[in-house]
Amino acid sequence: MKFADLRTILRYVPQFQGRTFIVVLDGGVIASDNLSNVLLDLAALRSLGIRVVLIFDASPQVQALAKARRVKPTSTGGEGPTDKETLEITIDAVGRTANRLVQQLTVLGVRTAAAANMLTVRKAGILGGVDQQLTGRVQAVDTASLQTLLSENILPVVAPLGYDRKGQTLALDADWIAAEVGIALRVPKLIYVAGPGQLPFPDGPSSQYSVRTLREELARRADMAPGARIKLRCAMRACEEGVARVHIVPGLQDEAILAELFSTEGIGTMVHVDAYETLRPAALGDLERMVQLSRRAVEEGQLLPRSREEILDRLDDYCVVEMDHNLVGMVAVHLYPEDGCAEVACLHVRPTHIGRGYGRAMMRWVEDRAKSAGIFHLFGYTTQASDYFIDRCGFEETSDSSWVPKERLEKAIRSARNSRLVQKHLDPEQGER
Ligand SMILES: CC(C)(COP(=O)(O)OP(=O)(O)OC[C@H]1O[C@@H](n2cnc3c(N)ncnc32)[C@H](O)[C@@H]1OP(=O)(O)O)[C@@H](O)C(=O)NCCC(=O)NCCS
Q1: What is the pLDDT of residue 324?
Q2: Under a CB-based contact definition with an 8 Å cutoff, are residues 314 and 334 in contact?
Q3: Nearest atom of ligand 1 to the alpha carbon of 345
Q4: Is 385 in the pocket of ligand 1 (CB under 6 A)?
Q5: Is the CB of 348 inside a 6 Å radius of any atom of ligand 1?
Q6: 6-39, pLDDT tens digit by residue?
Q7: In the structure, what pLDDT confidence band is assigned to residue 2 with cuts at 50, 70 and 90?
Q8: Which pLDDT score is estimated for 342?
């Protein structure tokens, strides 16, 4: 490594320090000569103050053990049905694999703990008419216990096995476990260290996909290897539910994790949600859900109460964020062309979805809307989000309200909420983004 590499890495440290990353090791990587390099990368992440949860797959190890015992496994990695005999082999193979990982991490000075029963699982049941037998699905994640280990500087190792309420062991798919744990812990990064045949775009250069473009790409690529396709599906689910970025890196390549995380170009595939892509104009069918969405913010004094009728009257001014058929955000921009200004109003993100960029994406929409109407002066009345407008969105507070449209000013005075007035002059040169 050159000094320049070290400097590049150190630039990222303040951003990553104290955050939790999930790393998923494919069984093919564990079986390869590159394992020691990958584990060294994990030790390096830890020494930079990054918390790591390690989740591993053991499909090739299950296959190898089954072959040695002359058994034909019904499934190897928690995908497809798992019969009793396959489960016994899986338990043995997973145990040996965990032992190997913990042993090697110990040599590197990393303290680990088996996070054996930190997942609540249930039987997958019958899928597509096929009984999945002893294959499980993750129902809930014990985030408190995982956080306790992480705060003690311990690296939790999560195996692809879980126990249902009756104590029955079930085989799980490591890729799906990672997505669920990532969502539950709301991690900024989930990294799949992919083995042979698991890279979605093996011949292409490093690439970045928003969930929407990836969905289109997946529909076009019917020939993609099943292992790679599952990783992309998990990545899309994780991103849609709050994981900021998912990376799929070539696990047989030396320093793959470090090269992906600590360079702007990266070397793998990165998936993210483009919050702007999740916006759409509000429609009549959204009305009831918009009223419900804003209710709590109104109760807490963050938003001015608006009746169904008031929203309906100006429905064209609103846009919403919809995820998985749920409204999670809304905003309005009211234009006052005669006064040469526009108001941002009713900006709200569901508490479960804050901090994922939806607020800023909606503000971009508001600005684009105002600009395309030829208006470059934006204002807002706010009680609890003035810092957000000022620090995150480039507004400034003003005590001069002489230019505020008369009807709006009177409404603000009548409401007696003592709101702060913030304003922003938009750059006409920038045009629509
Ligand atoms: C304000 C609000 C819309 C922000 O939405 P969001 O989707 O969480 O915002 P983003 O993801 O774009 O930005 C998140 C960042 O803003 C910061 N932030 C969020 N709300 C803030 C507030 N009220 N004051 C100061 N900073 C705030 C977060 O700390 C986060 O910082 P980070 O990027 O350093 O982690 C949302 O918190 C909300 O709905 N609040 C309640 C309703 C409200 O007050 N609306 C304003 C009516 S005028």
Answers
A1: 67
A2: yes
A3: 48
A4: yes
A5: yes
A6: 787 888 888 889 999 999 999 999 999 999 999 9
A7: low
A8: 98
Give me the amino acid identity at 83: D
Ligand 1 geometric centre to CA of 252 (Å):
41
Q: Each residue of 261-306: pLDDT tens digit?
A: 988 778 899 999 877 778 999 999 999 999 999 888 888 888 888 8
Tokens, residue 353: 């979805």
The atom of ligand 1 lying closest to the CA of 385 is 23
Would the CB of 356 count as within 6 Å of ligand 1?
A: yes
Strands of 216-308, DSSP E: 245-250, 269-272, 279-281
Q: What pLDDT is recorded for position 433?
A: 35
pLDDT-derived band at 4, boundaries 50, 70, 90? low
Residue 346 CA: which ligand 1 atom is closest? 47
CB 268 within 8 A of CB 202: no
Span from the CA of 359 to the centroid of ligand 1 (angstroms):
6
Question: Nearest-CA neighbor of 422 among 400, 413, 408?
Answer: 400
- Return the C-alpha torsion angle 417, 420, 421, 425, nearest 10: -150
Q: How far apart are the first and last CA of the chain?
A: 40
Alpha helices in 300-394 (DSSP H): 308-313, 358-372, 386-387, 393
Domains of the chain: 3-273 (3.40.1160.10), 278-430 (3.40.630.30)
> Residue 432: what pLDDT?
40
Q: Work out whether strand 269-272 and strand 245-250 pair parallel, antiparallel, or are unpaired.
A: antiparallel
46 backbone dihedrals φ, ψ, rounded to 5°:
-65, -40
CA of 194 to the centre of ligand 1 (A): 35
Ligand 1 atom 19: residue of nearest CA: 388
